[in-house]
Design goal:
The protein is of the alpha/beta class. It is built from five helices and eight strands, in the order E-E-E-H-H-E-E-H-E-H-E-H-E. It has an eight-stranded mixed sheet, with helices on both faces. The longest helix has 18 residues. InterPro entries: Macro_dom (IPR002589), Macro_dom-like (IPR043472). This is A1pp, Appr-1-p processing enzyme. Pfam families: Macro.
Length: 199
Amino acid sequence: MPLEKLAEYRCNGVVVEIARGDITEAECEAVVNPANSLMIMGGGVAGALRRAAGPEVEEEARRKAPVPVGEAIHTGAGRLEPRIKYIIHAPTMERPAMRTTQGKVVKAVLAALREAEKLNVGCLALPAMGAGVGGLTARESLEAIMEALDEFLGSGGKLPPRIILVAYSERDAKQFLDEIKRVKTRNCKLAPVGGETRA
């Protein structure tokens, strides 16, 4: 099932969408895997990506491990190609199933954005980074993601023209929609576009 678009914002001309669904269904050039440094794709988003893309994605990622928090790598997208071209693996934790922090998520998202800029992708989809086994709420995750976008812009980085923030569950989608209205950004002039669909 394709992602359900719930809201659209503009950040300095960049489209920022909030959508609900399975990130493996995104119509987007690159998706982000909130990885661990060892690149073991066990549960959560990583597990879903491995199941949908095939084990060769994990094999390719593990050849580049360990990857510290604050750095990112990319692999092909296996069976998800050509709809998705790249999976960007950005660790939010050192080992599988560890708790993480908003600070680590900010570092992970900054690393993913740098990788996306290097690859010159037109669209980047991010899940609730650090939620699930990482222990953060979707609200805390969105706050950290927006902080990273803001910091990246402030440092002169070029964002992809379209960014999709993907909430898996209805509850997470509601937290994303609530938090994006409250979030404070300095460099990203965030403005809603059109109406918002109820989550």
